[in-house]
């Protein structure tokens, strides 16, 4: 039986290789000189050689067998599947399963998984049956923390099982390491791979342009095969190369006289009554970055089974993830500096008409203000998980299980940024230049090219400063900031259970108790980087030559060279000073959350025949009692003043609740390879950690004059809610499956989840009488006692439903000449009646987080005589998702449809001197598809609901060549 399992404000700092994939693939197929793992023998899927790269067909057989024999509706990934695609983690493989979709993170790799249209927050993630910690301020696990080389298999439960603790509302992913006593004999596997990215090395000196992955695994049995040992180590050193453009804002200033070249577009009435000519890209940025990703993973398993009456296993998982990212950023603004009488002049304007909106897509612009930014980010994640599980015979037909586990994640991050721009030292003012720009309104390549060469790279013509007013405090000494978020997540769990074999309709009965305690601390700290002053009281804007590096090459964005500054070296040089950041910006998001969850469960297993139809499954019940509490902060000082720690006030809150969760899983076996499955269950998922925080932000009095309707009103304050109750839903599932042979099947499934309760953002009131108003409120204005407060609250109603289709088909079933060929396909169609509101946009409803209306995956493969080939494509329709920005705040974005193709070719030596050796070629993101975020063009457009490109990230194509040796 498997088992589940005070905020602090102190500071916590912690030559180009090019491969043409098609040409390389053809050459390798002809020479048979690259490959994947040797064709797997008919051993169990838990053998060590399945941990790295093994036979495609055997992996499919293992997954199909597990799916067929399960009493629940599940999907299975065996380690052979993972090794047969260019996967950086298990998430890449999970994203190919029916009903599951992957979200590519800022590095281009899938790090988050949505199950059945619900965001990652709604799914449970277990390691060997025990709840797993996470590195963010939520419950969602980042899957790239799990090296694929150390994973034996993963099971996705789509219907609840009463004996499974730590389940999610949308589903549960149980990641499993291997069991050494299930392996036959000693197994040693060595693996080495090198990789290159088609984006090249965008930023020099950060990491080697050649990445590598190495791993070593060892399994053996001792004492007459009663003791088993498994050890595994995996190192990932893979650089990320990202090209990012952001179109922050469109606005229409053409009523004031925009010169348009060629034929003028048809004039459209604006929302403000003016007649506009074109929407202008008023604020646009381009960022180039290189990131060093270094991850060391360790797995160890000690298994003891002297006889059938006793079985004990201790497993350890450890991962250390270090990243270092350096980036350069160019930002332009068409707003100019109107207070100084400087407004951009445009010529040669090209436009594009989309519906009722006209967009300026290219032009030459003079008097353009520019900002140059430099970023340096360092992050460390330290994760450990250990568990001890013992099963023993208590009496005739009675068995007992005890499980003790602990997991912990420590994350420290340090984000440093500094800004400046072109500067006229003689006249002590910013310089405004001319640019040729091309910004398509439908996405694609975007460029802003300075007319004057070297304009943005010569430090003699540049200076530090807040060129575009990015610092909200309003102190022009500001040139940047250092932000240092830190997270500590800890889970302790104890589980005791017994099982009794029965005769009759019910084959067995099990019951048990699980107690889990989780504590999570989230810290945020910020220091402002300020310029020093000279003897005359003037800011020292000069950039020290000692901190200037080789310019960034941003030719892909139209900028040949961009000034590069080493921000940590700048801070260490003493040329600037540090000042504690304003508490109102982040103190309300510092929190500590504690929860103790006690789960009692009982389950009756069903195994019988009715009228010649086999019937199996289970009937279960969980009783879950949760006690939760949180501590947070409120800052009762003025935002304009220097931060005063004595004005911080600790806030506390919490609640407790009990849920009764029945579940039923039935499988009808019609004895002719037809199966029908039915599931009915009540499920919950506890509130997000960040939603449960006790902190609250600091509001200000609005600047409206006395006598106007809003005079004396407060801006909106934002807070968590320690008394939040969970999401609750009743789920109904139906699946029909037909199996052909060992590796082929077709299935169709339908599901519906009726929500009994959910969590939404809503507005209420808060007493602001203890918050001092700022000094510059208009004369005669008296602040009101109460102000608006947006906080997460519980609601009720809504549904999520969908259809899923999956098939695995062998070519040999159609004709013997097709032996070795095959295909695996899946498709899902989902819908939901639930709409969410963003905390700062309550009037705007967005689709349920993580929901893609359609998704599909298609894989074709060939494997025979040691030669293997595989091509896979996954697709998901547009969706919304919440991520973290550079301020460590939640930001919800609208994603365009995402389609990614991967390729793998290989050859395994099955006999002779090189037996056990396999060679491989893997190509990830073959078509170099970017991720694309959209946003509404804005209320002042003729059609303000029209979506326009916001963020476009190009990650490049990754080509990997490697070898694997098993002995």
UniProtKB/TrEMBL annotation:
Keyword Nucleotide-binding: no
Gene3D superfamilies to which the protein is assigned, alphabetical: TonB-dependent receptor, beta-barrel domain, TonB-dependent receptor, plug domain
Positions of the TonB-dependent receptor plug domain: 67-171
Highest taxon, organism lineage: Bacteria
Pfam families tied to this protein: Plug, TonB_dep_Rec_b-barrel
TonB-dependent receptor-like beta-barrel domain residues: 447-926
Localization of this protein: Cell outer membrane
Recorded family membership: Belongs to the TonB-dependent receptor family.
Protein name from the UniProt record: TonB-dependent receptor
Source organism (scientific name): Roseateles toxinivorans
